[in-house]
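Hey L., structure's done. Input below.
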Amino acid sequence: MKNKFRLNLSTTQKIMLSFIVVILAGSVLLALPISSASGEAVSYMDALFTATTATCVTGLVTVPTVSTWSMFGQVIILLLIQIGGLGVITIVTGFAVGMQHRMGIGDSMLIQDAFNLNTMSGMREFVKKVIKGTFIVEAVGAVFYMPVFVADYGVKGIWISIFNSISAFCNAGIDIFAEDSLCVYVHNPLINLVTAALIILGGVGYIVWWDVIRVWKDRKKLKGKCWQRLTLHSKIALSVTGGLILAGAILIFVFEYNNPLTMADYTMGQKIQASLFQSITTRTAGFASIPQQNLSNASSMISLLLMFIGGSPVGTAGGIKTVTITILVMSAFATIKNQNEVSLFNRTISKQAVSKAVAVTSMSFIIMFVSTVLLSAVTEANALDILFETISATATVGLSRNLTGTLNVWGKVIIIVTMYLGRVGPISLATAFNSRKEIPNIIKNPTEKISVG
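Output:
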């Protein structure tokens, strides 16, 4: 029976269960007295919440990370962030590859589903490049952080640099030096630049990395046609990422320019820097250089939209993803123009991709809506704060308008479940309990026209 159950477990179910196992194991370790800075065990609910937010690389916290956890606890949290950012399956498979174990078709399918890839070819090499690339970028980020953090915190600054680099790259948004995130460094260009770079690199997706590197190596042969040689996926991810960051920064700059609670007293350069960082961090990173509760309603609405969209596929970011929203928008325009095919950059987008984009967006919206309604029922916070919290949890962002720390037990449970569902992925939830083989529709129902819109 045991072997039969294991054989019948789909790859998506394995991925979902792997995150549950890691979260539960992390919560047990964080509930130990040794994990607490005070030596007294933290409540299990807060330990479970912290383990979930770390593994799901979200960043919402019910207790201050800097003052609540000991060095042991911080190490556990960092391991959970790294595992959650790369994915449990990737870590285990990478270890097996390092031990020279052969990767079977089952392992390849796990990696394919874990990263939502369209092919199973070259999975062994893909895993090796992902892990190697991740560690290199995180190491470089830590080195660039050190001049500031070592100067401010001494030897402890080395640990802070390592922690912050991994947290930023994995889009976790958890730090161990302040209770108000990066607000103290809002005017520090190095901290802002390094953090923003790590967030973008983690969020743009690994397959974009390899595509850009491939084209860069052949740049002399291409003679200025590098952009044309990129894949359609890379073109969408890069152009939409850049467009959203720029548009978001401009709008936030305008809306916060005279806001006395945020940027009214900043210089022009500081306003531009803070606006850019806010636009970038809403792409599921969760670091805050200005208090989110002080943002104007207009800036908060822009932040909600950016959080819901998130980063790009096959990376460490959450949200419905840049490629998904692009496909939806282009599909809408194609329908308006009465066109049968959706095209972009002189390429046709498959109907399967359009259907998947609709499914992902619909599931994300349902998760967000249900979470918002439930949280509204158990807390007396205002609607904007609640919506900010639930979208942040659904898209695994981690930004909050100071609501997380005030949640009661039911509120914490709701956000824990929301973070988990947001990290595992709406499309995985929709297909997790389906069999691997698709059952053909032998008998088809008659078609009838309906009114839409």
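The mean pLDDT is 86. The chain is about 65% helix and 0% strand.

-- N.
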